[in-house]
Amino acid sequence: MAPAARDVAGRSTLGRIAWRIAVTCALAALAACKVDSIHPVTPADEARPDASIYGVWQHREKDEITYVHIGPEFSLSVDKPARDPQRRMRLVLVEHKSNGLTDEEFVAQASRVGSTRYLNVVQTERGKPVGFVLVRYTLVNRDTLRFATINEVRLNEAIRAGRIQGSARGGGISSETAMTADSAEVAAFLRREGDALFNKPVVMRRLPPR
User: Fold this and answer.
1) What DSSP designation does 199 have?
2) What is the model's pTM?
3) Start-end of H helices in 57-209
4) What's the structural domain count of the chain?
5) Is residue 132 one of the residues assigned to a domain?
6) Quick check: is 34 in a domain?
7) Pick from 116, 139, 121: nearest CA to 190
């Protein structure tokens, strides 16, 4: 199976739970979820954590509440692990719904294209990384964070038009849309078209430490 063909069951629970701005998918989709890009916006050895968004964030929608915990990836080292410049970030999503509680965990690396910030959220299949969901984010102020996920229709159009290398086949829940270009090309594409590529952002509020 080609890397882009692995995305057969929805845009990722990350989008469905935390930001609710893309086509939804089921929790079971984690075993074979879609990816936006096979490669991150910047190579892993250039990644740096973004400590400015560490903390607990909350998003409310009607009677449902989502908490997003963000911090450095766990390390067995207790000698200032958050200062490791290569460390990935960890995201823990907890959703309180009328029919119960769900939780999920992800790892991500931060990237910047100019002054615009992105999270490259690792997606796995059978325990192996298969690509990344790209999330554009803005720290409006210390306590206000905006997240936006990629609009799959617009990405599909860009790939079919040849503006970025990728795979764009089918439509709806069975579509296969993912960039296969290298990191430098992905970053250049986002610089050119990022403003039109992402969905409307969802606002999250930081919870004060107890």
Assistant:
1) P
2) 0.79
3) 152-160, 183-197
4) 1
5) yes
6) no
7) 116
Alpha-carbon distance of 43 to 9, in angstroms, equals 27
Residue 79 lies in a domain: no
- Cα–Cα distance for residue pair 66/21, rounded to 1 Å: 14
**% helix, strand, coil for the chain, step of 5:** 25, 40, 35
The pairing of strands 176-179 and 64-72 is unpaired
Give the list of residues 6+ apart from residue 141 with CB closer than 8 angstroms, or none: none
Cβ atoms of 191 and 113 within 8 Å: the answer is yes
Question: Token digits for 86?
Answer: 């290569």
H-assigned helices in the chain: 13-14, 152-160, 183-197
Q: What is the residue type of 1?
A: M
4-14: burial string, b at 16+ Cβ within 10 Å, e else: bebbbbbbbbb
pLDDT digits (tens, 9 = 90+) for 25-79: 322 233 335 789 999 999 988 888 899 999 999 988 777 888 999 998 876 566 6
Report the length, in residues, of the chain: 210
Q: Do 132 and 123 contact (CB within 8 A), yes or no?
A: yes
Q: 49: which residues sit within 8 A by CB, 6+ positions away?
A: 72, 82, 84, 85, 87, 88, 89, 109, 110
Residue 125: give the domain boundaries: 3-29+39-74+84-161+171-206
Residues 78-112 as b or e (16 or more Cβ within 10 Å = b) = eeeeeeeeebbbbbebbbeeeeeeeebebbbbbbe
Domain assignment present for residue 175? The answer is yes
